[in-house]
Each structure stands twice: as C-alpha cells, then as structure tokens.
Specification:
The chain has about 170 residues and is mainly beta. Helices cover about 5% and strands about 55% of the residues. The protein is elongated, with a radius of gyration of 17 Å.
C-alpha cells in the first residue's frame, strides 16, 4: 500500500472561536504523520483499509495575541499534554468523488474521543495527496473549561479546519 508522508510546512490547522468581545482566530503548521492509502480508478480503495495518523504539537497553535496564546497554553496544560493526535478508524465514501466520512479517535488534553466528520481527498497533478475537512468541537468534551481573560469570556465551541498535504515516500 502506498505511503504518504505529511509535509509539516505545507499542512495547516485553523481555529475559529467566539468570545464575549470579539472573534478569536488561531492557526498552526507543523502537522506530521503518515497516510497509507490505496487508490482505484475513481478515488480511494476503501477495501484496503486506509491507515492515517496525524499529530500536532500544541505549542504550534497561535492566535497572534500573546495574552490569549499564553492563556490557551495554560488551559491546555501544554507541558503535560504537548500533542494532539488523530487516528482514522474508518472511512466511507459519500458517493461524490473525493468526499468521505471519516471516523477516528482524537486525543487532546488527556482525553480521547471517537469523532466523525467529512473530508475531501484530492490528488493534484504535482503528485501530492491533499485532505481537507472542517468540524465543530466543544472543548468541554475534552475536560477543558473555556478561558476567561479579564473581561473576555471565550465560548466553548471551536470550529477547526484542517488541510493536510502529503507526498509519496519512495
């Protein structure tokens, strides 16, 4: 089965949260991991059981506001839980080329939850593999309480968008 290596500098995670005062945006590069997938004539060959693992060091998450970033790292307890991990357990075709429902385990802040979401898988002409998706999370599901910074109260729902670019290993 072909193996693809995630390219950290070309892969990104974006976060969107809201607060009592203003929206909060975060971003991170530095995703790493591997993607073992087989292709058929129309897309992924799901009978070959794709094996996808991704990791992100939490220290890579940045909002551009030092105060918000420091509070986020404190709430996450980045020293104790330095990595966010995702492992795909199952994929199902949506019936549209390139669209799949993914079920997997997401480990964050010492908690592992089984989640489901939709992704798009594409293979641009340059030979890379691109996986993109978006999902809303409630940080309370990961034993994290929403931060309060002075008069700023952050709401617990966070929208996460991901773009993974990977290249084939030879």
């Amino acid at each position: 089965m072909p193996r693809f290596r995630i390219v950290p500098e070309r892969s990104r995670v974006w976060l969107e949260a809201s607060s009592s005062i203003h929206p909060i945006h975060g971003e991170a590069s530095g995703l790493s991991g591997s993607i073992d997938v087989q292709f058929d004539g129309t897309g992924l060959d799901l009978s070959a059981s794709p094996d996808i693992k991704v990791e992100l060091p939490v220290e890579q998450l940045k909002s551009g506001n030092r105060l918000e970033d420091a509070e986020m790292m404190r709430r996450i307890d980045a020293r104790r839980y330095p990595t966010i991990r995702g492992v795909v357990k199952d994929m199902k075709s949506q019936g549209v080329d390139g669209r799949y429902v993914v079920t997997g385990d997401l480990s964050f802040h010492g908690v592992t939850q089984t989640i489901e979401g939709e992704v798009t898988v594409s293979r641009p002409d340059d030979g890379t593999l691109v996986i993109e998706g978006e999902r809303q999370f409630d940080i309370r599901d990961y034993n994290m309480s929403p931060p309060k910074i002075l008069m700023l109260k952050v709401h617990p729902e966070v929208k996460v968008r991901i773009r993974v670019e990977a290249v084939g290993e030879t």
